[in-house]
Specification:
Blueprint: H1 3-16, H2 22-27, E1 54-55, H3 64-72, H4 74-87, E2 93-96, E3 101-112, E4 115-116, H5 120-123, H6 125-136, E5 147-152, E6 157-161, E7 168-176, E8 181-185, E9 188-190, E10 197-200, E11 206-210, E12 216-224, H7 230-246
Antiparallel strand pairs: 1-10, 2-3, 3-4, 3-5, 5-12, 6-11, 7-10, 7-12, 8-9, 8-11
Helix pairs in contact: 1-7, 3-6
Length: 250
């Protein structure tokens, strides 16, 4: 722990109580916390969060409004996405996962680096508005991560991997889903249903594939895990921001 982290944690404990960030502190203890075998490659596992790979998108009062807003706007979101893909391909870029970069995995960012990507408002106005109103202004989005259109080209495969931690959770709106596409999380394979959302804990090993002949696009949003608390979220932002600073990442 650096002095900056210790000071941030002390301020949170002073405001919310001595035990308010105990789970975050336990996560940092030598040996970490227990984890499911399918989470073995994740960097951080905060104890006390449901060790469940797949979640019901409507099961959490905090997240259900985001799900409803995205699904209600699916038709407009798809039309705007397809228009951008056909006429403004330059706004998409190779997706740079923290593990790798893939040319057959394209991304258009709406939220990145702790804020909305303003230039995307003209390209995908409906998705931008919904994400801004339902997830950013309500502070449901995890500011440490991002929101983007994720397009897998025909034949693309995302190899099995775990993401960094379990204190955020990944919501997918199935925007444009051709035949031959699927996602596997902790050994269970599912398919996207166009216009509907999937929600899963990406600290569990997961992989995806497009074995069809058309691009597959989902809108991905990194949301706070609904079982985390406000003081924990503040502590986690302070922690990861300081770690990234020390690593020269910003």
């Amino acid at each position: 722990m650096t002095p900056e982290m210790e000071n941030a944690f002390a301020a949170i404990r002073a405001e919310y109580g001595a035990d308010s960030i105990a789970r975050v502190e336990r996560m940092l203890e030598p040996g970490g916390s227990g984890r499911h075998p399918s989470q073995k490659a994740a960097k951080w596992i905060m104890p006390g969060l449901s060790p469940t790979p797949w979640h019901d998108p409507y099961a959490y009062d905090e997240l259900a409004p985001v799900v409803r807003a995205l699904e209600a706007s699916h038709r407009a979101i798809k039309e705007e996405l397809n228009s951008a893909w056909a006429g403004r391909r330059e706004v998409f870029s190779d997706y740079e996962h923290y593990l790798t970069r893939q040319e057959d995995w394209q991304a258009l960012y709406l939220f990145r680096g702790g804020g909305l990507v303003a230039e995307s408002a003209a390209t995908a106005p409906t998705a931008y508005r919904v994400v801004k109103e339902a997830a950013v202004e309500t502070e449901k989005i995890c500011p440490l991560l991002e929101c983007h259109f994720s397009t897998l080209l025909p034949g693309a495969v995302i190899d099995p991997h775990c993401d960094l931690w379990n204190f955020s959770i990944n919501l997918h709106l199935a925007v444009d889903i051709p035949d031959g596409c699927s996602i596997t999380v902790a050994g269970e394979t599912r398919s996207w249903e166009e216009g509907k959302c999937l929600l899963f804990d990406y600290s569990f090993e997961h992989e995806a594939r497009n074995l069809g002949i058309h691009p597959r696009t989902c809108l991905l949003i990194d949301l706070w895990h609904p079982e985390t608390t406000l003081p924990e979220r503040r502590a986690l932002v302070a922690l990861i921001t300081e770690i990234r600073r020390l690593m020269g990442e910003g």
